[in-house]
Amino acid sequence: MEQIRSQDNPCKALNMTMVAIMLTIVAILGIQCLCSLIYLLRFGRTICKAKRGDQYQDAKVIVTIPCYNEGTEELTKTINSVRDESYPNEKKLLLFIADGNKTGANSDKAPNYATTPVILSHLLGYDKSDHDPVYNCDSTGYETADNGEKTPIGNRAKIYHGTTEEGLNFMVIEKCGRAFNADDVGNRGKRDSQILLLQLLNRVMHNHTLDKHRTDYRDLNELEIAIEGALRGMDFPLTSNNMSDQVKYLMAVDADTRLSKDSITQMVYSMETKPKTLALCGETKVDNKDDSWVTKMQVFEYYTNHGLKKAFESVFGTVTCLPGCFTMYRLFDARDASASQPPVTLFACDYVYDRYARNDAVIETLHEKNLYKLGEDRMLTTLLLQKWNMNLKYVPEAHCYTIVPDEFMVLLSQRRRWINSTFHNMLYLLSVNLGGICCFSMKFILVLDMIGTLILPSSLLYLGMILYDSIMDHNSVSTYTLLVLGFSVFVQIIGPLLRLKIKYLWYAFVFYLIGVPVFYFVLPLYSFWNLDDFSWGTTRVTTENANTNEAIAADALDEEQGSGGAAGTSSTDASEEDKAEKSDEASFADDDRATNFAEALEEYFLKKLMLEKERANGADADAEKTHQSNVDQREMLTVGANIKGARSIFQRGKSILKGKVVVAIGGSTVVSEEEGGSRAEKSDKAKVSFADAVDEDNAGESSVAGEP
To answer: What CA–CA distance (Å, rounded) separates 263 from 281?
Structure first.
């Protein structure tokens, strides 16, 4: 008996500790729920004033949309939602930043499997040509030398701008890369696209009141000069002596996101009526709710993350994550501005820019890579919180709809990035003053969130063990356990009930049945196990990159143009001859380019045949080496050192000479059957010799690209 009593004491202590933890959790959940409901109900009554009149619709807004490989359907949906939004079209500008030249696997509805920049040209109605000016710009990318030294490398880009038929202003920045970017032409990642604009804002706003000859004047690169000039030409200046004329807000939207009818209006209203608000986000809803069980279990999770977590954080004015898919930033603070005192730069201030724009070459630690490479949106939010004593808010009346992963492996990759970057950002946020005192502060909630993230899998496992034992041994579950479980469910479903979102109760059932084991056990374990994985993993599928030749052409154009010319626009300042070479609506590139490419391939294969004959005749080693050098040089120029893609490129050139309709480099159209025939007639000899080379090469033991 004495031994049993000695064992009871530790058990009692453990039970008391568990009871204390459970009561703490219940108290925190109750406070969060109460604050969130008060905030949502109060906010809902005041924000509706935005619908009364247009007195808050004078500010100019740039809507930035970074894109990578989105298809026609997604881009059309996004463009139409911005165009049809109630905020005046003349006060908003749509800015696409195309990160490279990729063709998504979902682009099959576009003619010839078009790349994202090509699709944009057709949707927005501007002309795109290989002869458009190309501008040098900075980049976060780097190259590694043989000795391991990392050297930052630049990038190149084209710009197009104009106005759609409906009166929506637009600009497209297309990263096109350099010749050595054989695998991913121009692609540098989403953070690079953000930095491209952040650097422009930082330099332009810093230079506003400075003379060009001052030592602290910050020179703009070629692309920044072109962008800044184009924005002024469209009456969207980044700086102006009259502050009401310059762009006031910057909005970030994803390329697969659809805005609600008055989302921008609601956000601008909140910004205009609350000058201490630095940035804000709206509610992101799932657009593809019923695509699969994977999407169904995310619906209620998205709802609670916004209606409970972000609403609670907004009470303190410290929303810890402003999502890149739906956020608005204030560019400057003019409250204390005067003739002698310019407005204070907020979003693009030196503190934020210097820390966020670090080159990838100097990001080396595990902590930094998780911050910068996986969680760019959270990192940007953290820097804003760290620098400015202003509010970061959540606007529940502004809605957007986004496409969520519908396959489990894609969800696994997405949440690995989110969970790992979130945890590291929490560590970073511990050094930031988030408001409140001791246990009644956001920092205290942050610490509890960190602990909860770490113990979620074991907690769920422990809960499962308790339920299993109670069922198998017919024991009753602890009252405290039932209290915590019941209250946890209650605080999450009370929001939908009070806001009459009855349909969300079905998605809540799916979430608790399937989502809880996935989100609270599988995903955290997988994420922490892959803490050193900084790739984006399984996301959208892209077709094989066939745009290397565009980068080579860009280098050649740069040599001809020197420092470049005016920005390419929908009313491009190119010559009439260049304008005459544009493709028609059924094609995505001019046929001259395709034919010239075929002729280059012809020369390549003829030299290859010569080399084979010399080898067969026992030519000396020097001759073989010389010809091999010529072949290698031609190969580099024609296929951009992308040997893997040489076979597909070669087949395209072959089809051109045979007068077929094919797809040229860059995902573009080429010629019709009749046009192909007329072009082939220009060089009958070339066509025959090339066809012979083709047949002989295909009959050989291996192709130039090697067997697949």
So the answer is: 10
Distance CA 66, CA 312 (A): 29
Sketch the domain layout of the chain as residue ranges: 1-52+258-323+364-402+408-537, 55-256+561-582, 587-699
Query: What letter represents residue 663's amino acid?
Result: V
Angle separating helix axes 116-124 and 72-84, nearest 10 degrees: 40
CA distance linking residue 118 with residue 120, whole number of Å: 5
Radius of gyration of the chain from its Cα atoms, rounded to whole angstroms = 29
Cα 547 from Cα 666, distance rounded (Å): 5
Most confident of 34-48, 219-233, 614-628, 637-651: 219-233
- Which DSSP symbol is given to 515? I
Q: What token pair was written down for 221?
A: 């690169």
Please, what is the Cα angle at 306 between 305 and 312, to 5 degrees? 95
The mean pLDDT of 167-183, rounded to a whole number, is 80
For residue 58, pLDDT over 80 is answered with yes
DSSP 649-675: HHHHHHHHHTT----BTTTB----HHH
* pLDDT one-digit tens code per residue, 243-280: 888 999 999 999 989 999 999 999 999 999 999 999 99
Helix ranges (DSSP H) in 374-521: 376-387, 408-429, 442-472, 479-498, 504-510, 516-517
Can you spell out the DSSP letters for 423-453?
A: HHHHHHHTTS--SEETTEEHHHHHHHHHHHH
Place of tokens 């573009």: 668
Residue 435: strand pairing partners: none
Over 60: is that where the pLDDT of 631 sits? no
